[in-house]
Every structure is written in structure tokens, then in C-alpha cells.
Amino acid sequence: MDIVINISVFAFGAILGSFFNVVIFRLPRKYSITHGTSFCPHCKHRIMPLELVPILSYLFLKGKCAHCHAPISIRYPIIEFITGLSFLFSYLRFGLSYASIIAMILASLCIIIAMIDIDTMEIFDRFHLMIFALALVHVLFISQLDIVSHLIGFFIISIPLYVIAVITNGIGGGDIKLMAVSGFLLGYQATLVAFFFGAVFGGMVAVYLLLTKQTQMKSLMAFGPYLCIGIYIAYLYGMDIFTWYMSLLT
Ligand SMILES: [Zn+2]
């Protein structure tokens, strides 16, 4: 029975993931998200419902348009897969609970933010507002932490980032706002964990790009995607990791 539920949760995420693909593609281009059907960018063939089954359609069509056989980006099934996986992890961590729903919404926002940041090097303010709204629900109804921990979370990384941004001009305002609203959601303990993971992942990729001299791969240097991974991990396990780390110090 467990396996059926797990597969259903994954499938639900993957279906939403294919909608996120539309959002990620259309939002920066200012196209309507709710109007208009999907079409092949190459031959304008209207994509039929059967060609829209997440992941499976891509595999079945071998990554090509059913009409003109132009290649379809592997990005689409990957985003569907990651969304499905993040929903499954949220469910496995929190079970049937409101925290699970918050984790799934957070994962969704993180995926959209990360992909748009990779494409445009920008994080839109509306997403900061959505995370802030999510944080309010979490802080008021779910969190075990006191409000002060959440308020400190808002500032603990965003202020140092702001100072670094003023001095070096190397950090975008979108990243600072992301760490502020996410910090409010997570509380300061998990916020430190989120930033630690974000910095480690971002740092590893930066070193790899430098070593392989792919410095023209600027899009991979957007900091937002790594912060997003850290934020999602921290919502699931941040408090446990923080408590474990503190126990090492004492
Ligand atoms: Zn086509």
C-alpha cells in the first residue's frame, strides 16, 4: 500500500512539474500562463494531451516532437522528475500533515525560482512575497519554534549578505530577499543550515567551472538555485542538522 501512495505522490508532483515548465518558460517572457495551449517551438504543432504525460511522454517520443521530430529539451522531464521527487521526500519526511503541504509548496517555489534564476539571473519579487505568505502560515500554525527565532531568521543571513553586496557588488538583491523571507520561514537555526548547504553547493560548482575554465557558463553562477536547494533541505532536516551540529560542540 505504501508503494502505491508513494508513486501517487510522485506522480502528483510530476504533473505539477509539467505545469511549472510552462510557468518557467512563459513568466520571464510575459506570456499568459493560463491562456493558450502548448505548442512545439519548432513546427508550432499543438501538443496533444497524450504528449503531455510527465516524463513518460518524453521517453516514449524519445525526446522528439511527435510531428516534426525536432529535439525537445531534456530540461522538461528533469524538472518533472525533480518536482515529483521533492513531493515524495516531503511526504516521506512529514507524512499526511500540513507541514507536508508547506514543504511541497516550498519545493515548487524553489524549483521555479531556481530555473528562472538560471535563465534570467533574476528572482522576481512575487516569489519572495509567496514565500513570505507561506512563512506566515508556517509560523502561525505549524512551527514549534518561538516567534523570536523566526524573526532572527529573517535577518541572520540577509544582513551579512546585504553588507557583502554593498562592499563587493557581487550578490544580487534577489538572493538577499530570498534569504530574508526563507529565514523567517525556517527560523535562524535552519537558516544557517540552508545557507551552509547553498554556499557549499554553489562553491563546489564555482570551483569546478574555474578548474575546467568554463567561466563563460555564467548562468550556472547564479547563486539562487544553490540557496533554493539549501532552503528546501533545511525545511526538511535543518533543525535536526543544527541540533546534531551543536551537540558536537558541547
Ligand atoms: Zn515540432
Q: Any overview of this molecule?
A:
The protein is an all-alpha fold and 250 residues long. It folds into two domains: 1-96, no CATH class; 122-250, no CATH class. The protein has nine helices and no strands. Helix 4 (98-120) packs across helix 9, helix 5 crosses helix 8 and helix 8 (173-211) packs across helix 9 (224-249). The longest helix has 39 residues, at 173-211. Bound molecules: zinc ion (ZN).
Helix content: over 70%
| Distance between the ends | 43 Å
Quaternary structure: single chain
Number of strands: 0
Task: Give the distinct bound molecules.
Answer: zinc ion
Helix/strand-derived class? mainly alpha
Overall pLDDT level: 92
Largest sheet: none
Provide the succession of SSEs. Answer: HHHHHHHHH
Describe the global form.
globular
| Integer count of domains | 2
Number of helical segments? 9
Uncertain segments: none
Q: How much strand content do the residues show?
A: under 5%
Radius of gyration: 19 Å
